[in-house]
Design a protein that fits this description.
Length: about 290
């Protein structure tokens, strides 16, 4: 519901849409609230058009509206189910972050909560980010800063990322089709074993894995080393409710990388994956080729 004090801001947003300013690289934006010092009720428009990037607002005053508009044709259907996830820096302060849609504001991140660095996600269709500075007698040393990324809520492994749809993590095995797509399209794919827990909470476990094969990876989350230098090692996040994987079994490990951390997706036993992969090859239904030798 729109609060009385917000009416002025929404009016300002509507008035300034025509005078929107684009960020210099369309992926990240860095600005200063000092430009608002003489007229604190300004609302600046920011447009970001990439799949990931960052925002840094120094000495926040007034407000900014962050419009996340990926360079995807609306008719392609690729924006359906697309979510935006943001992760504030642990030093971020000085602003409240809302979702703004057709004049309504919904609190997403309060100023006091940003120091936890927790990830928040929302549907791209829900609106723009409305970042409002908290009035302060001294704005020095205050910086609002966060990273953002666009995350599909559908596809192999999406059901294991807890921030997309809180409370609805599914630990059910992926379908055969999802497994074949995962080995071809997810951020990392390889075969290996679970070696033990590194750390965790009541909701998430950080698990150490060693890979004997690495078909693909993004952002270097797995490093060469492993046992006697014959593998890759890394850590993956796994929802605690999904239980443990026996250390003696070899698995196909696939998943996504969010804000530099690996998240487990489809993870069938490797021998089961090989049977599926060979069968799909014979039937001509393999979406891609990998070296399983």
């Amino acid at each position: 519901m729109l609060r009385p004090w917000a009416a002025h801001w929404i009016t300002a947003v509507l008035l300034c849409r025509a005078a929107a300013q684009y960020s210099s690289d369309q992926c990240s934006w860095r600005g200063s609230g000092l430009s608002h010092e003489s007229h604190r009720r300004d609302v600046e428009q920011v447009y970001l058009r990439c799949s990931q990037g960052s925002l840094e607002w120094l000495y926040p005053t007034g407000a900014i509206v962050v419009n996340l508009r990926p360079n995807i044709e609306p008719s392609s259907g690729h924006t359906a189910g697309l979510h935006v996830c943001i992760k504030p820096h642990t030093s971020s302060q000085g602003s409240h972050v809302y979702l703004e849609h057709t004049g309504d504001l919904r609190l997403l991140l309060a100023d006091r909560d940003q120091a936890r660095g927790a990830v928040s996600c929302f549907s791209l269709a829900e609106g723009a980010l409305f970042v409002e500075a908290v009035p302060q007698p001294d704005i020095s040393r205050r910086i609002t800063a966060f990273q953002y990324e666009l995350v599909p809520s559908r596809g192999p492994g999406a059901h294991m990322y807890p921030y997309l749809l809180p409370g609805s993590v599914s630990c059910q095995p992926c379908s055969d089709e999802d497994v074949l797509m995962a080995v071809c399209s997810t951020d990392f794919a390889g075969s290996g074993i679970f070696r033990g827990f590194s750390s965790g909470t009541s909701e998430l476990s950080l698990v150490v894995v060693t890979l004997s094969r690495l078909f693909r990876q993004k952002s270097g989350v797995f490093v060469w080393g492993g046992a006697k230098g014959r593998g890759w090692t890394g850590r993956v996040n796994v929802p605690a409710r999904c239980g443990e994987h026996p250390a003696e079994d070899e698995y196909l490990l696939t998943g996504s990388v969010h804000f530099g951390e690996a998240w487990l997706g489809c993870a069938p036993r490797y021998k089961d994956f090989l049977k599926l992969y060979v069968r799909a090859q014979k039937q001509g239904t393999n979406p891609c080729h990998i070296d399983t030798s």
